[in-house]
Design brief:
Layout: H1 2-21, H2 33-70, E1 83-86, E2 90-91, H3 102-106, H4 114-128, E3 133-134, H5 137-143, H6 147-150, H7 155-166, E4 170-180, E5 183-184, E6 189-191, E7 194-203, E8 208-218, H8 229-235, H9 242-261
Parallel strand pairs: 1-3, 1-4, 2-4
Antiparallel strand pairs: 4-7, 5-6, 7-8
Length: about 260
């Protein structure tokens, strides 16, 4: 009997020693049905968040950038500007320097109807909105023959004189320096469209320029320049003609002008 008790004690002692020598492993409960359902979904969601995080940072940066741009103080106007006239946009050729590269020579492409094309886009934007009134182009054409307009020394003075003749409160004027057509189609090009022009607004009563805007763009694939996303958003994923690209630029500048003069 004593021999059996001694053997039992020895077995119990050896069991305790072996248990004490094992590494401590925390108990891990069995996964519940809910955790089994949710755990496979949580992993793909983390991958999506990793994918979207750079885009979110970019969109956040763009938001603050655009907010800063739109927070510019409005110019001090002598009075409200509600009626606009458009002085036809003029071509201004930038002569390339001697020894310029071929790519620099291409930047001077400027067909004879470039100014007319940009002017037409400005009138198109004015016709599509209902906030600002504008003087018809036929009336402007007749007013351009007036001596005060014809003999003005520069574009700003000519725009001011035009506004007085047609009773406009503000006159848009500007120049186009590049109007290069695309080589290809809307699906693919060997050379993209490229345009450059500026628009300005003169307050007729003071003769001062109260707003200036510039557009200088050569279309690029979206993968090469994410800041061109606004073009694809407004006009779709395609290669634009020079007129289409100019239209996008005019719309962007005119919207900025409207926000500026309306405060």
């Amino acid at each position: 009997m004593r021999t059996q008790e001694t053997g039992d004690r020895r077995q119990e002692t050896e069991f305790r020693r072996s248990r004490a020598s094992r590494p401590l492993i925390p108990d891990s409960p069995l996964p519940s049905p809910v955790s089994r359902v949710l755990s496979p979904v949580s992993r793909p969601l983390s991958r999506v968040s990793d994918l979207l995080s750079p885009v979110s940072c970019l969109l956040t940066s763009l938001f603050f950038l655009l907010s800063a741009c739109s927070a510019r103080p409005a110019p001090e106007l002598a009075g409200p500007i509600e009626v606009l006239a458009v002085l036809p946009i003029e071509r201004t050729r930038v002569e390339p320097q001697e020894g310029a590269l071929e790519t620099e020579l291409e930047q001077t492409d400027l067909p004879a109807d470039a100014g007319f094309a940009v002017t037409a886009q400005v009138y198109g934007w004015l016709a599509d909105q209902s906030v600002l009134r504008f003087v018809p182009d036929v009336t402007v054409s007749d007013a351009l023959l007036a001596p005060s307009v014809r003999d003005a020394p520069n574009l700003q003075a000519r725009a001011t004189a035009l506004g007085k003749v047609v009773n406009a409160q503000g006159v848009i004027f500007g120049t186009v320096t590049r109007f290069r057509e695309r080589v290809g189609t809307g699906l693919g090009v060997t050379r993209a469209a490229s345009v450059a022009f500026d628009l300005n607004l003169v307050e007729v009563v003071t003769g001062k320029v109260v707003w200036r805007g510039q557009f200088n763009e050569t279309q690029q694939p979206l993968s090469s320049n994410l800041f061109n996303f606004w073009m694809f958003w407004e006009a779709g994923p395609q290669w634009f003609t020079a007129r289409e690209l100019a239209g996008l630029g005019v719309r962007r500048l005119m919207e900025q002008m409207e926000r500026t003069i309306r405060g």
